[in-house]
Amino acid sequence: MKLTNFETMDAVMLMSIVNMKIRDEFGDLDNLVKYYEIDKAQLIARLASAGFDYLPEAKQFR
After folding, report:
1. pLDDT for position 4
2. pLDDT at 23 (0 to 100)
3. Which run of H or E residues covers position 60?
4. What angle do CA 42, 46, 51 make, to 5 degrees?
5. CA distance 1 to 13
6. Is residue 1's pLDDT more than 90?
7. pLDDT tens string 22-59
8. Rounded to whole angstroms, how far apart are CA atoms 21 and 29?
9. Which of 10, 15, 18, 20 sits at a 20 to 30 Å CA gap from 58?
10. Record's InterPro entries (predicted)?
11. What is residue 2's three-state secondary structure?
12. DSSP 8-state assignment for residue 1
């Protein structure tokens, strides 16, 4: 699944996909945003607006 349309995706689905991709494919958020060429701050803000915070030590949104 491509994340280039993250701004219009359902936030819960987006959080789930991002967490899965970090865990299974990328290891951390920086590698994920670099691969998909998306703005890290915008992704974090999009998920924060739905109540999800990025926890760097856990490498996931909660």
Report:
1. 85
2. 98
3. strand 60-61
4. 140
5. 11
6. no
7. 999 999 999 999 999 999 999 999 999 999 999 999 99
8. 9
9. 10
10. DUF4250 (IPR025346)
11. coil
12. -
More confident site: 1 or 5: 5
3-state secondary structure 3-59: CCCCCCCCHHHHHHHHHHHHHHHHCCHHHHHHHHCCCHHHHHHHHHCCCCCEECCCC
Pairing of strands 54-55, 60-61: antiparallel
The backbone torsions φ and ψ at residue 2, rounded to the nearest 5 degrees and listed phi first, read: -80, 145
Cβ distance 47 to 18 under 8 Å? yes
In the numeric block, the tokens 């760097």 are attached to 56
